[in-house]
Amino acid sequence: MLNLICEIGVNHENCVETAISMVESIGKYQFSDVRLTAKFQIYNSFELAAENSPSYWDLNYEKTSTQRELFANYDKLTFEDYVRIYKACQSSGVEFLITAFDLVTLKSYDPLVERHKLASADILNVPLIRAISETRKPILASTGAASFSDIDFLLETLSPSSLRTLSLLHCVLNYPTMDHNANLDGINVLRQRYPQFRIGYSDHTIPNSELSILSIALSMGVDLIEKHFTHDKSLRGNDHYHSIDHADIPTLISHYHRIRTALGNPDLFERFRQNEAQAITHARRSIVSSKHLKRGTVLTSSNITTKRPGTGISSRYWDQVIGLTVAKDIPADTIIMASDLNHFYADGSFGF
Hints:
It is a single chain. Helix content is 32%, strand content 17%. It has 352 residues and is α/β, with parallel strands linked by helices. It folds into two domains: 2-264, Aldolase class I (TIM Barrel, Alpha-Beta Barrel), CATH 3.20.20.70; 276-342, Type Iii Antifreeze Protein Isoform Hplc 12, CATH 3.90.1210.10. The strands form three sheets. An eight-stranded parallel β-sheet has the order 3-2-1-8-7-6-5-4.
């Protein structure tokens, strides 16, 4: 099942009606094999960033130069506002999820969520990690800018019960992330190093019409995608410029269905080979006489060859037929059948 987390974040720009409208637009696309999630970033700008804390985003897209100044623009919604949004999620069949950036927010909103999201920047935030772990709910942790030692520290800090339901998301902490910096192979790196966890992808690239980067991630078998979401891509600033919108959701889900169908199921490898039965019969090779063979002729590598189709003795038994004698005359360029040969086995078999 695909879990598509639409990261509204603060793209509602402090408007409850806009947030609810975005949730409803996400909820229009319901599929039995897709879990749709609307995620929000909830913080207190004063608690989150010190005064004059420098930006880490591209100022060509977002002009605000300090973190506190930017975050102060988007922390105006109240708990009651988010309760309305939560209820809209319930009505729309969409999961309500948040990234809490402080302990007060985490405690306040915990009753409303099924699981918690830990931001990349908080992967070393011991008090917050411990508080999230104590909720005993599943955790999604982004790994943007994290080294292996950072991730290992997170795992050491979480409780054993949290580790059983932890998902790690490959992420690049550039806003935006250029395609050549997406480093999607990091998904495989995380899988190899942490095979016990579900590995997803949190994307900050600027989407094209084909949603190429997300599609590549899906083709790698990722079934947990987090992507910023907006109601208007043309809006400047904040996260609008690297977001998808409601029109992209069916495109992405269509890609998911087609890719999952094409990838198949490794557990069903042999069954899928049944679809190639005709190719096996006609494209593989049989043992064929390369010259006229009289009855009693001993088969050697000089009087037989292999040719299509594979309706006679399979070419895999080349070594086994060498030295056997033919039971009747066989014209040149003829597929040799088992009944055409004298056997050397007491049980009457030819070993193939």
